[in-house]
Amino acid sequence: MKRQANIACPQASFAWVGLLRSLTVLVLVFIFAPTASAHPQKGEAIGFLNGFRHPISGLDHVLAMVAVGLWGAQLGSPSIWLLPVAFPMVMAVGGMLGLMGVPLPGVEYGIALSAILLGAAVMFEVRPPLGIAAALVGFFAIFHGHAHGTELPAGQSALLYSMGFVIATGCLHGLGIAIGTLHRWPWGQKFLRVAGALVSMGGLFFMWRAVA
Amino acid sequence: MKPVNHSRVPLYAFLAFLLLMYATPAEGHLNTTGMGPIYDGMMHFLMSPEDLVPVLALTLLAGLRGAASGRRALFVIPVAWLLGGLAGLSAAAANPHPFIAAGWFLLLGGLLAADAKLSLRVTTALAAFLGLYHGYLNGTGMGLFETAAVALLGLVFAVFVLVALAAALVVRLRAEWTRIAVRVAGSWIAASGLLMLGWAVRTR
Predict the structure, then answer these.
(1) Alpha carbons B164 and B151: distance in angstroms, whole number
(2) Domain ranges in chain B?
(3) Alpha-carbon distance B126 to B109, whole Å?
(4) pTM of the predicted model, to two decimals?
(5) Which of A42, A92, A101, A146 fits a disulfide with B194 by CB distance 3.0 to 4.6 angstroms?
Protein backbone atom coordinates (compact mmCIF):
# COMPACT_ATOMS: atom_id res chain seq x y z
CA MET A 1 0.00 0.00 0.00
CA LYS A 2 2.83 2.31 0.89
CA ARG A 3 4.58 1.62 -2.42
CA GLN A 4 1.36 2.27 -4.22
CA ALA A 5 1.06 5.54 -2.41
CA ASN A 6 4.59 6.47 -3.45
CA ILE A 7 3.84 5.65 -7.06
CA ALA A 8 0.69 7.59 -6.77
CA CYS A 9 2.61 10.57 -5.49
CA PRO A 10 6.12 10.38 -7.03
CA GLN A 11 7.11 13.93 -6.09
CA ALA A 12 6.64 13.24 -2.36
CA SER A 13 8.76 10.09 -2.67
CA PHE A 14 11.51 12.00 -4.47
CA ALA A 15 11.61 14.64 -1.72
CA TRP A 16 11.86 11.92 0.93
CA VAL A 17 14.80 10.23 -0.83
CA GLY A 18 16.49 13.60 -1.30
CA LEU A 19 16.14 14.37 2.40
CA LEU A 20 17.68 11.01 3.31
CA ARG A 21 20.60 11.61 0.97
CA SER A 22 21.17 15.06 2.38
CA LEU A 23 21.14 13.70 5.92
CA THR A 24 23.62 10.97 4.96
CA VAL A 25 25.97 13.52 3.48
CA LEU A 26 25.57 15.76 6.52
CA VAL A 27 26.37 12.90 8.91
CA LEU A 28 29.47 12.02 6.90
CA VAL A 29 30.63 15.62 6.86
CA PHE A 30 30.25 15.82 10.64
CA ILE A 31 32.05 12.51 11.13
CA PHE A 32 35.06 13.72 9.19
CA ALA A 33 35.04 17.23 10.63
CA PRO A 34 38.51 18.23 11.84
CA THR A 35 39.17 19.44 15.36
CA ALA A 36 38.32 23.07 16.04
CA SER A 37 41.51 24.94 16.87
CA ALA A 38 40.00 28.12 18.19
CA HIS A 39 40.90 27.34 21.81
CA PRO A 40 43.85 24.98 21.75
CA GLN A 41 44.89 25.72 25.33
CA LYS A 42 41.64 24.37 26.67
CA GLY A 43 41.55 21.33 24.44
CA GLU A 44 44.98 19.86 24.00
CA ALA A 45 48.57 20.87 24.02
CA ILE A 46 49.70 20.67 20.45
CA GLY A 47 52.89 22.57 19.94
CA PHE A 48 55.63 25.02 20.74
CA LEU A 49 53.62 28.18 20.18
CA ASN A 50 50.77 27.04 22.40
CA GLY A 51 53.26 26.29 25.14
CA PHE A 52 54.96 29.63 24.57
CA ARG A 53 51.68 31.49 24.87
CA HIS A 54 50.64 29.83 28.12
CA PRO A 55 52.87 31.70 30.64
CA ILE A 56 52.33 35.07 29.00
CA SER A 57 48.56 34.69 28.93
CA GLY A 58 48.13 35.44 32.66
CA LEU A 59 49.10 38.85 34.06
CA ASP A 60 49.68 37.47 37.57
CA HIS A 61 52.37 35.14 36.24
CA VAL A 62 53.87 37.80 34.00
CA LEU A 63 54.20 40.30 36.87
CA ALA A 64 55.96 37.83 39.15
CA MET A 65 58.35 36.56 36.48
CA VAL A 66 59.34 40.03 35.33
CA ALA A 67 59.81 40.99 38.99
CA VAL A 68 62.25 38.09 39.41
CA GLY A 69 64.33 39.52 36.57
CA LEU A 70 64.12 43.05 37.98
CA TRP A 71 65.19 41.90 41.42
CA GLY A 72 68.05 39.84 40.01
CA ALA A 73 69.28 42.87 38.06
CA GLN A 74 69.11 45.02 41.20
CA LEU A 75 71.06 42.48 43.23
CA GLY A 76 73.71 42.06 40.55
CA SER A 77 75.95 39.04 39.98
CA PRO A 78 75.49 36.17 40.78
CA SER A 79 71.78 36.73 41.59
CA ILE A 80 71.18 38.23 38.16
CA TRP A 81 71.56 34.78 36.59
CA LEU A 82 70.96 32.47 39.55
CA LEU A 83 67.42 33.65 40.27
CA PRO A 84 66.22 33.33 36.65
CA VAL A 85 67.80 29.87 36.50
CA ALA A 86 66.27 28.78 39.80
CA PHE A 87 62.77 29.97 38.94
CA PRO A 88 62.11 27.88 35.79
CA MET A 89 63.71 24.79 37.32
CA VAL A 90 61.62 24.91 40.50
CA MET A 91 58.59 26.03 38.53
CA ALA A 92 58.96 22.90 36.41
CA VAL A 93 58.96 20.82 39.60
CA GLY A 94 55.70 22.53 40.56
CA GLY A 95 54.36 21.94 37.06
CA MET A 96 55.30 18.28 37.29
CA LEU A 97 53.43 17.97 40.60
CA GLY A 98 50.42 19.69 39.05
CA LEU A 99 50.51 17.39 36.04
CA MET A 100 50.73 14.37 38.33
CA GLY A 101 47.68 15.59 40.23
CA VAL A 102 49.51 16.19 43.53
CA PRO A 103 47.40 18.80 45.35
CA LEU A 104 48.89 22.05 46.64
CA PRO A 105 46.69 24.27 48.82
CA GLY A 106 46.39 28.01 48.34
CA VAL A 107 47.91 28.18 44.87
CA GLU A 108 46.16 31.42 43.90
CA TYR A 109 47.13 33.05 47.20
CA GLY A 110 50.73 31.95 46.69
CA ILE A 111 50.83 33.46 43.21
CA ALA A 112 49.33 36.75 44.37
CA LEU A 113 51.67 36.83 47.38
CA SER A 114 54.64 36.24 45.10
CA ALA A 115 53.81 39.37 43.11
CA ILE A 116 53.29 41.38 46.32
CA LEU A 117 56.55 40.31 47.97
CA LEU A 118 58.76 40.26 44.87
CA GLY A 119 57.40 43.68 43.89
CA ALA A 120 58.08 44.94 47.41
CA ALA A 121 61.62 43.53 47.25
CA VAL A 122 62.20 45.52 44.06
CA MET A 123 60.50 48.61 45.45
CA PHE A 124 62.64 48.67 48.62
CA GLU A 125 65.72 47.20 46.91
CA VAL A 126 65.93 44.50 49.56
CA ARG A 127 69.33 42.77 49.54
CA PRO A 128 69.11 39.47 51.41
CA PRO A 129 71.83 36.78 51.22
CA LEU A 130 71.82 34.90 47.93
CA GLY A 131 70.47 31.69 49.52
CA ILE A 132 67.47 33.45 51.01
CA ALA A 133 66.68 35.25 47.75
CA ALA A 134 66.92 31.99 45.79
CA ALA A 135 64.80 30.14 48.38
CA LEU A 136 62.13 32.85 48.26
CA VAL A 137 62.01 32.82 44.46
CA GLY A 138 62.02 29.01 44.38
CA PHE A 139 59.23 28.80 46.96
CA PHE A 140 56.92 30.97 44.90
CA ALA A 141 57.94 29.26 41.67
CA ILE A 142 56.32 26.08 43.02
CA PHE A 143 52.93 27.81 43.11
CA HIS A 144 53.29 29.25 39.63
CA GLY A 145 54.39 25.90 38.22
CA HIS A 146 51.64 24.01 39.98
CA ALA A 147 48.98 26.35 38.62
CA HIS A 148 50.33 25.88 35.10
CA GLY A 149 50.66 22.13 35.51
CA THR A 150 47.10 21.75 36.73
CA GLU A 151 45.78 23.78 33.82
CA LEU A 152 47.74 21.88 31.19
CA PRO A 153 45.74 19.19 29.43
CA ALA A 154 47.22 15.93 28.27
CA GLY A 155 48.58 16.64 24.82
CA GLN A 156 50.15 15.14 21.76
CA SER A 157 53.44 16.97 21.91
CA ALA A 158 54.57 17.27 25.49
CA LEU A 159 58.11 18.01 24.40
CA LEU A 160 57.42 21.00 22.18
CA TYR A 161 54.78 22.36 24.53
CA SER A 162 57.11 22.07 27.53
CA MET A 163 59.95 23.74 25.68
CA GLY A 164 57.76 26.62 24.55
CA PHE A 165 56.43 26.99 28.06
CA VAL A 166 59.88 27.07 29.70
CA ILE A 167 61.42 29.35 27.07
CA ALA A 168 58.58 31.86 27.44
CA THR A 169 59.15 31.89 31.19
CA GLY A 170 62.86 32.45 30.63
CA CYS A 171 62.12 35.26 28.18
CA LEU A 172 59.94 36.99 30.78
CA HIS A 173 62.86 36.86 33.22
CA GLY A 174 65.09 38.16 30.45
CA LEU A 175 62.67 41.04 29.94
CA GLY A 176 62.89 41.84 33.63
CA ILE A 177 66.69 41.71 33.52
CA ALA A 178 66.76 43.94 30.45
CA ILE A 179 64.57 46.51 32.19
CA GLY A 180 66.70 46.06 35.30
CA THR A 181 69.80 47.29 33.49
CA LEU A 182 68.38 50.78 34.00
CA HIS A 183 69.61 50.37 37.57
CA ARG A 184 73.00 51.85 36.64
CA TRP A 185 71.48 55.32 36.36
CA PRO A 186 69.95 57.20 39.31
CA TRP A 187 66.73 57.87 37.43
CA GLY A 188 66.67 54.19 36.44
CA GLN A 189 66.83 53.15 40.08
CA LYS A 190 63.80 55.28 40.81
CA PHE A 191 62.06 53.84 37.77
CA LEU A 192 62.69 50.30 39.00
CA ARG A 193 61.32 51.14 42.43
CA VAL A 194 58.16 52.47 40.83
CA ALA A 195 57.96 49.33 38.69
CA GLY A 196 58.29 47.22 41.86
CA ALA A 197 55.48 49.22 43.46
CA LEU A 198 53.28 48.59 40.43
CA VAL A 199 54.01 44.86 40.60
CA SER A 200 53.08 44.85 44.29
CA MET A 201 49.86 46.69 43.56
CA GLY A 202 49.07 44.17 40.87
CA GLY A 203 49.71 41.40 43.41
CA LEU A 204 47.34 43.07 45.86
CA PHE A 205 44.67 43.19 43.19
CA PHE A 206 45.09 39.48 42.45
CA MET A 207 45.05 38.70 46.17
CA TRP A 208 41.83 40.64 46.56
CA ARG A 209 40.35 38.76 43.63
CA ALA A 210 41.48 35.42 45.06
CA VAL A 211 39.97 36.17 48.47
CA ALA A 212 36.74 37.71 47.17
CA MET B 1 3.06 7.98 -15.13
CA LYS B 2 6.66 6.94 -15.77
CA PRO B 3 8.32 5.77 -12.47
CA VAL B 4 11.23 7.89 -11.30
CA ASN B 5 14.58 6.06 -11.66
CA HIS B 6 16.78 6.97 -8.67
CA SER B 7 20.31 6.06 -9.66
CA ARG B 8 22.67 5.84 -6.71
CA VAL B 9 25.81 6.48 -8.77
CA PRO B 10 25.81 10.29 -8.27
CA LEU B 11 25.37 9.82 -4.53
CA TYR B 12 28.25 7.35 -4.30
CA ALA B 13 30.41 9.56 -6.45
CA PHE B 14 29.65 12.53 -4.26
CA LEU B 15 30.43 10.56 -1.09
CA ALA B 16 33.69 9.32 -2.59
CA PHE B 17 34.58 12.89 -3.48
CA LEU B 18 33.88 14.01 0.08
CA LEU B 19 36.00 11.21 1.53
CA LEU B 20 38.88 12.12 -0.75
CA MET B 21 38.53 15.77 0.21
CA TYR B 22 38.98 14.87 3.88
CA ALA B 23 41.85 12.46 3.36
CA THR B 24 44.67 13.18 5.82
CA PRO B 25 48.36 12.76 4.99
CA ALA B 26 49.81 9.31 5.52
CA GLU B 27 52.24 9.45 8.43
CA GLY B 28 53.67 5.98 8.20
CA HIS B 29 57.02 7.11 6.92
CA LEU B 30 59.53 9.91 7.10
CA ASN B 31 58.64 13.29 5.72
CA THR B 32 60.42 13.45 2.45
CA THR B 33 62.20 16.56 1.28
CA GLY B 34 62.01 15.54 -2.35
CA MET B 35 65.77 15.73 -2.55
CA GLY B 36 66.66 12.13 -1.84
CA PRO B 37 67.31 9.98 1.22
CA ILE B 38 70.44 11.85 2.36
CA TYR B 39 68.49 15.06 2.85
CA ASP B 40 65.53 13.13 4.25
CA GLY B 41 67.79 11.77 6.97
CA MET B 42 69.25 15.19 7.70
CA MET B 43 65.83 16.78 7.93
CA HIS B 44 64.56 13.98 10.14
CA PHE B 45 67.20 14.80 12.71
CA LEU B 46 66.88 18.56 12.45
CA MET B 47 63.09 18.40 12.73
CA SER B 48 63.03 15.98 15.69
CA PRO B 49 63.58 17.92 18.93
CA GLU B 50 63.60 14.69 20.96
CA ASP B 51 66.83 13.81 19.12
CA LEU B 52 68.24 17.25 18.54
CA VAL B 53 67.95 18.77 22.03
CA PRO B 54 69.83 16.05 23.97
CA VAL B 55 72.62 16.14 21.38
CA LEU B 56 72.78 19.91 21.67
CA ALA B 57 72.86 19.72 25.48
CA LEU B 58 75.69 17.19 25.50
CA THR B 59 77.61 19.17 22.90
CA LEU B 60 77.29 22.40 24.88
CA LEU B 61 78.39 20.55 28.00
CA ALA B 62 81.41 19.11 26.21
CA GLY B 63 82.20 22.54 24.79
CA LEU B 64 82.16 24.08 28.26
CA ARG B 65 84.67 21.45 29.36
CA GLY B 66 87.12 22.47 26.65
CA ALA B 67 88.46 21.56 23.24
CA ALA B 68 89.41 17.98 24.13
CA SER B 69 85.90 17.10 25.31
CA GLY B 70 84.34 18.90 22.37
CA ARG B 71 86.56 17.02 19.94
CA ARG B 72 85.75 13.71 21.62
CA ALA B 73 81.99 14.40 21.40
CA LEU B 74 82.39 15.40 17.76
CA PHE B 75 83.57 11.93 16.78
CA VAL B 76 81.94 9.68 19.40
CA ILE B 77 78.32 10.86 19.02
CA PRO B 78 78.06 10.42 15.23
CA VAL B 79 79.92 7.09 15.22
CA ALA B 80 77.78 5.73 18.06
CA TRP B 81 74.69 7.04 16.30
CA LEU B 82 75.67 5.24 13.11
CA LEU B 83 76.37 1.97 14.93
CA GLY B 84 73.11 2.19 16.87
CA GLY B 85 71.23 3.02 13.67
CA LEU B 86 72.70 0.09 11.79
CA ALA B 87 71.75 -2.22 14.66
CA GLY B 88 68.25 -0.78 14.67
CA LEU B 89 67.71 -1.18 10.91
CA SER B 90 67.15 -4.90 11.29
CA ALA B 91 65.19 -4.68 14.55
CA ALA B 92 61.47 -4.31 15.05
CA ALA B 93 60.15 -0.76 15.28
CA ALA B 94 60.38 0.69 18.76
CA ASN B 95 59.08 3.90 20.27
CA PRO B 96 61.13 5.97 22.69
CA HIS B 97 59.88 5.50 26.22
CA PRO B 98 58.63 8.89 27.49
CA PHE B 99 60.39 8.43 30.83
CA ILE B 100 63.72 7.79 29.12
CA ALA B 101 63.26 10.76 26.78
CA ALA B 102 62.50 12.98 29.79
CA GLY B 103 65.45 11.42 31.61
CA TRP B 104 67.89 12.46 28.87
CA PHE B 105 66.59 16.03 29.01
CA LEU B 106 66.85 16.08 32.80
CA LEU B 107 70.28 14.50 32.99
CA LEU B 108 72.02 16.46 30.25
CA GLY B 109 70.20 19.73 30.94
CA GLY B 110 70.92 19.41 34.66
CA LEU B 111 74.61 18.68 34.08
CA LEU B 112 74.83 21.65 31.72
CA ALA B 113 73.04 24.00 34.10
CA ALA B 114 75.33 22.92 36.93
CA ASP B 115 78.39 23.24 34.67
CA ALA B 116 79.36 19.78 35.90
CA LYS B 117 83.10 19.19 35.81
CA LEU B 118 82.90 15.87 33.96
CA SER B 119 86.06 14.01 33.08
CA LEU B 120 86.85 13.22 29.47
CA ARG B 121 86.03 9.57 30.11
CA VAL B 122 82.54 10.34 31.48
CA THR B 123 81.83 12.73 28.61
CA THR B 124 82.85 10.02 26.16
CA ALA B 125 80.64 7.44 27.86
CA LEU B 126 77.65 9.81 27.83
CA ALA B 127 78.23 10.60 24.16
CA ALA B 128 78.42 6.89 23.30
CA PHE B 129 75.24 6.01 25.22
CA LEU B 130 73.33 8.93 23.75
CA GLY B 131 74.42 8.10 20.21
CA LEU B 132 73.73 4.40 20.51
CA TYR B 133 70.30 4.87 22.08
CA HIS B 134 68.98 7.52 19.73
CA GLY B 135 70.65 5.94 16.72
CA TYR B 136 69.00 2.64 17.51
CA LEU B 137 65.58 4.26 17.80
CA ASN B 138 66.11 6.10 14.51
CA GLY B 139 67.25 2.88 12.88
CA THR B 140 64.18 0.94 13.93
CA GLY B 141 61.96 3.56 12.34
CA MET B 142 64.00 3.77 9.18
CA GLY B 143 64.35 0.02 8.68
CA LEU B 144 61.08 -0.07 6.78
CA PHE B 145 62.59 1.67 3.74
CA GLU B 146 64.93 0.49 1.06
CA THR B 147 67.06 3.62 1.26
CA ALA B 148 67.28 3.54 5.04
CA ALA B 149 71.06 3.13 5.19
CA VAL B 150 71.57 6.18 2.98
CA ALA B 151 69.12 8.22 5.03
CA LEU B 152 70.96 7.12 8.15
CA LEU B 153 74.18 8.46 6.67
CA GLY B 154 72.51 11.80 6.04
CA LEU B 155 71.21 11.84 9.59
CA VAL B 156 74.65 11.08 11.02
CA PHE B 157 76.13 13.80 8.87
CA ALA B 158 73.64 16.29 10.32
CA VAL B 159 74.59 15.15 13.84
CA PHE B 160 78.26 15.68 12.99
CA VAL B 161 77.68 19.17 11.63
CA LEU B 162 75.55 20.23 14.60
CA VAL B 163 78.07 18.92 17.13
CA ALA B 164 80.95 20.56 15.25
CA LEU B 165 79.27 23.97 15.07
CA ALA B 166 77.87 24.00 18.62
CA ALA B 167 81.03 22.67 20.26
CA ALA B 168 83.24 25.07 18.33
CA LEU B 169 81.00 27.97 19.33
CA VAL B 170 81.08 27.13 23.04
CA VAL B 171 84.75 26.15 23.28
CA ARG B 172 85.84 29.62 22.31
CA LEU B 173 83.47 31.45 24.68
CA ARG B 174 85.50 33.38 27.23
CA ALA B 175 83.21 36.10 28.60
CA GLU B 176 81.53 34.97 31.80
CA TRP B 177 78.05 36.01 30.76
CA THR B 178 78.24 33.95 27.57
CA ARG B 179 79.09 30.80 29.51
CA ILE B 180 76.25 31.60 31.91
CA ALA B 181 73.90 31.96 28.95
CA VAL B 182 74.85 28.42 27.90
CA ARG B 183 74.10 27.19 31.40
CA VAL B 184 70.75 28.97 31.37
CA ALA B 185 69.94 27.02 28.19
CA GLY B 186 70.76 23.87 30.16
CA SER B 187 68.36 24.86 32.91
CA TRP B 188 65.63 25.33 30.33
CA ILE B 189 66.31 21.88 28.89
CA ALA B 190 66.20 20.32 32.36
CA ALA B 191 62.99 22.19 33.20
CA SER B 192 61.45 20.89 29.96
CA GLY B 193 62.49 17.40 31.03
CA LEU B 194 60.73 17.79 34.37
CA LEU B 195 57.52 18.87 32.65
CA MET B 196 57.82 15.99 30.19
CA LEU B 197 58.18 13.63 33.13
CA GLY B 198 55.02 14.99 34.73
CA TRP B 199 53.26 14.70 31.41
CA ALA B 200 54.40 11.11 30.98
CA VAL B 201 53.06 10.20 34.42
CA ARG B 202 49.78 11.98 33.75
CA THR B 203 49.11 10.30 30.43
CA ARG B 204 49.89 6.79 31.65
Answers:
(1) 20
(2) 36-202
(3) 13
(4) 0.76
(5) A92
Mutation for B interface: A83, A163, A165, most B CBs within 10 A? A163
Sign of CA pseudo-dihedral A126, A131, A134, A140 = negative
Positive or negative CA dihedral for A36, A40, A45, A49? positive
Query: Where are chain A's structural domains?
Result: 2-31, 45-211
What is the tens place of the pLDDT at every residue in A92-124? Answer: 999 889 888 888 888 889 999 999 999 999 999
- First and final C-alpha spacing in chain A: 71
Q: Which residues of B touch A170 (CB under 8 A)?
A: 184, 188
Q: Cα A140 to the chain's mean position, in Å?
A: 15
User: What's the CA gap between A70 and B3, in Å, rounded?
Assistant: 84
Q: What is the pLDDT of residues A147-158, one digit of tens each?
A: 888 877 655 567
* Distances B120 to B97, B125, B162, B168 between C-alpha atoms, Å: 28, 9, 20, 17
> Is any Cβ of chain B less than 8 angstroms from the Cβ of A10?
yes
Query: What is the enclosing helix (H) or strand (E) of A93?
Result: helix A79-100
Please list, in sequence order, all residues whose beta carbon lies within 8 angstroms of the beta carbon of residue A24, skipping any fewer than 6 positions away.
B11, B15
Residue A16: closest CA among A27, A29, A2, A6? A6
Q: Is B117 left (phi over 0), alpha (psi -120 to 50) or beta?
A: beta
Asked if the ipTM is above 0.90, the reply is: no
A residues 59-98 lying closer than 8 A (beta carbon) to B: 81, 84-85, 88-89, 91-93, 95-98
B67, B169, B72, B203: which is closest to B130 by C-alpha? B72
